[in-house]
Each structure stands twice: as C-alpha cells, then as structure tokens.
Write a structure and sequence with these properties.
neuropeptide, secreted, mainly alpha, 6 helices
C-alpha cells in the first residue's frame, strides 16, 4: 500500500512540475507567425538604418498585408518603399 501511495504522490508531483512546460509555445511545434517576424524585421531595419528608414510605415504595411511582405534589411527591393530621402 505504501508503494502505491508513493507512486501516486510522485506522479502528482511530476504532473505539477510539468504544468509550466505544457503552457509553453515553442516555435518549432507551432511554426512561425509572419506578422510577428515582419514587425520585428521593421524594428531591426529601423535600428540599422536610423532616420533613413520609415519604421511606422513598415509596421503599417505588415498589418495591412498580414505579414505576407516581410522586409529584409539587406535586400534593397524589400525595404525600398520604406526608405526616406532625408
């Protein structure tokens, strides 16, 4: 009887210890969110290019096109709509 109680207690502790891991959202298991990547890339390009890059316009295009047009900071064609002439 003591063995069954110990096993049951260990099982409950193991389940409670893993509750935090169950709520995780790993990128590998769920894929990626193109909207999130698009907005993060806008922020990265703004950091890299500073005043030359219109970050809010880039973020608005991410929202408008639902992350389908992801800007790449080193690809002139993908960031050209967001560049300022200063």
């Amino acid at each position: 009887m003591a063995f069954k109680l110990t096993v049951a207690l260990f099982t409950v502790i193991a389940i409670l210890a893993n509750v935090g891991h169950v709520r995780c959202n790993p990128a590998i298991a769920t894929g990626y969110d193109p909207m999130e990547i698009c907005i993060e890339n806008c922020a990265q390009c703004k950091k890299m290019l500073g005043a030359w890059f219109d970050g809010p316009l880039c973020a608005e295009s991410c929202i408008k096109f639902k992350g389908k047009l992801i800007p790449e900071c080193e690809n002139f064609a993908s960031i050209s709509p967001f560049l300022n002439k200063l």
